[in-house]
Amino acid sequence: MKSSRLLSILMLLHTRGRMTAAELAGELEVSVRTVYRDVESLHAAGVPLYGDAGHRGGYRMLAGQRFRLTDLCEREAEALVLAGLPVAAEELGLGGDFADAVLKLRAALPTPLREHVDRLRARFHIDAAGWYAEETEAPFLSQVSDAVRTGRVLAVRYRRWKEPSEVERRLEPYGLVLKAGRWYLVAGPGPRTYRVDQILDATVTEDEARIPEGFDLAAHWRASQADFHARLHQGDALVRISPRGAARLTGPAARALAENGTPDTDGWTRATLPVESPEHAHDFLLALGTEVEVLAPEDLRERIATTVRTLAGLYA
């Protein structure tokens, strides 16, 4: 653990130039006293690291010194290589750059570690799209990516679900998110989320985008996803479900079954499942066929019974 922290200190100083003990402590989530001890350990190991006192002081590497990858441990090298799996680089127009970066990283590793990560890369592959999701094309993804990387305002023509269905917007890109094989742009004003495959035209302008200070893309996405799922849950359905039907549940329904399900004497389970709307609940539960019985609410039970009677008449 300490060796990994010492390596992190060297990487931070190499990339940022100068950092105070307090800044290092904040990045590493340790105390300032721990940073002082780590710096002493680095000095004792002969690392050319020195500190300046005063208001503008801090630690930095000796001029001309470079951080090298020869000190990476096996698990750190694995993490770097797996983090670089080419899931999105090709779509963003960075496939060639990604390949070059991997070659440089590979060449910088010691021979035994290089051979190890080569074997590892051959055994991992990520296919981000869902099984039943249609492949979506996002012809303006490269322009959107350029705007995000350069911090420029994006002028777009966008297709939305309500009228008018096509609108023009000037967006200040905050970041791109890849979710289940589909790209989303988080942008101001707002911020709001836009599906990149619904962008009908896009131009990167010369205007500089203004991103709110302290904006955290990952935290914003988690919060927006939590809000989305909370708004989906509009009601509950009390059901009895067979083991086979239970195995087909996913997401919130599966979690609800695991958390509040109680076994019946016939091997089925009684549970309250969250539903999005009466229409969704009808279609979702009817798809389970004879593996589920809706007990409540009564209007949902009657609606499914009506559909079943209609089906029976069609197949009589």
Description:
This protein is α+β, with helices and mostly antiparallel strands and 316 residues long. Helix content is 44%, strand content 23%. It has twelve helices and twelve strands. A five-stranded antiparallel β-sheet has the order 7-6-5-4-8, with helices on one face. It has a four-stranded antiparallel β-sheet with strand order 10-11-9-12. Strands 1-3-2 form a three-stranded antiparallel β-sheet. A hairpin with a 5-residue loop joins strand 10 and strand 11 (269-275). Helix 4 (74-83) crosses helix 6 (111-121). It is extended. The model has no long low-confidence stretch (mean pLDDT 82).
Annotation keywords:
single chain, 316 residues, alpha+beta, five-stranded antiparallel β-sheet, extended
Quick structural overview:
The protein is an alpha+beta fold and 316 residues long.
Largest sheet descriptor: 5 strands, antiparallel
Mean pLDDT: 82
* N-to-C span: 70 Å
Give, in order, the helices and strands. Answer: HEHHEEHHHHEEEEEHEHHEEHEH
* Low-confidence sequence ranges: none
Name the quaternary structure: single chain
Helix content percent band: 40-55%
What's the arrangement of secondary structure elements?
Elements (H helix, E strand, L loop, with lengths): L1 H15 L1 E2 L1 H8 L3 H13 L4 E4 L5 E4 L12 H10 L11 H14 L2 H11 L19 H10 L1 E8 L6 E14 L2 E7 L3 E4 L3 E10 L8 H16 L2 E7 L1 H5 L3 H10 L1 E2 L5 E7 L2 H9 L5 E5 L1 H17 L2
Antiparallel strand pairs: 1-3, 2-3, 4-5, 4-8, 5-6, 6-7, 9-11, 9-12, 10-11
Helix pairs in contact: 2-3, 4-6
